[in-house]
Amino acid sequence: MVYLLIVVASFVGGILQGVTGFGAGLVLMMALPMLYPVPTAAAISGVVFFVLCISMVWRYRAHLRVREILAPLACYMVLSGSSAYLTSVAPDQEFIKRAFGVFLIALSVYYLLIGERAENKPLHPALGWFYVALSGFCDGFFGIGGPLLVLYFLQRFPNREERLGSLQLFFAINVVYTTVIRAVAGAFPPNPLPIIALGAVAICAGLAVANVLARHIDDALLRRLTYVLIGICGLMNVF
């Protein structure tokens, strides 16, 4: 049952990430906290997610705009690294799990009611940096930093290929950093390699399917369904 959940979550996450540019971390973090404490789930999710990021960075390597991500990446890494360590060593993991549930519910409500309209509005530079900082905290605490960060990247990178490639490079660099921090803090479970290997294979399979289906999938509908599922998983974690 554990392995089946990992495979399904990774596969669906790979499809969502390949189509929309984010979402693999969301799907993994909806499933893995059913099996592990939130910091452990975030640690496993990060390694599986890294495989997907590298695949997408390679695919869009000709469109990368490295210099433009360095400043927000530095801010993001400081905040995500410190919060990842604090969460990993926190004594009350039950509270962290409930807080994670509240976070998922808020994320679901935000995107269903506000998020899609926000994507089409000009983003003030100060608000963009606020999104970067808040995303860093959310990444460290809950292993999910993509949703608000995507709004920042949508404004900075209008070209889809440049946005997807640069965003995945951003994530890949930060994942290495936070994974090391979580490992030092003892967040990984004993013998995590079989689970990580299964997840990596499944997420790459999902990405391959997304590359074929991207032109035929209703992106907006896929996102709405994902946000509804996020809210349901949030309620499950709270109650």
Could you characterize what this model shows?
By secondary structure, the chain is an all-alpha fold. 79% of the residues lie in helices and 0% in strands. It has ten helices and no strands. Helix 1 packs parallel to helix 9, helix 2 (24-31) packs antiparallel against helix 3 (38-59) and helix 6 runs antiparallel to helix 7. The longest helix is centred in the middle third of the chain and has 27 residues, at 93-119. It starts with a helix and ends with a helix. The model has no long low-confidence stretch (mean pLDDT 78).
Shape: globular
The number of E-state strands comes to 0
- What kind of oligomer do you see? single chain
Low-confidence stretches: none
The end-to-end span amounts to 22 Å
Query: Count of helices?
Result: 10
What is the C-alpha radius of gyration, as a whole number of Å? 16 Å
Task: Specify the structural class.
Answer: mainly alpha
* Content of β-strand: under 5%
Whole-number average pLDDT? 78
Bin the helical content: over 70%
Secondary-structure element string: HHHHHHHHHH
List keywords for this structure.
239 residues, mainly alpha, 79% helix, 10 helices
Concise synopsis of the structure shown:
With about 240 residues, this protein is mostly helical. It is built from 10 helices and no strands.
What's the SSE blueprint?
Blueprint: H1 2-20, H2 24-31, H3 38-59, H4 70-88, H5 93-119, H6 125-142, H7 146-156, H8 160-184, H9 193-213, H10 219-238
Helix pairs in contact: 1-2, 1-9, 2-3, 2-10, 3-8, 3-9, 4-6, 4-8, 5-10, 6-7
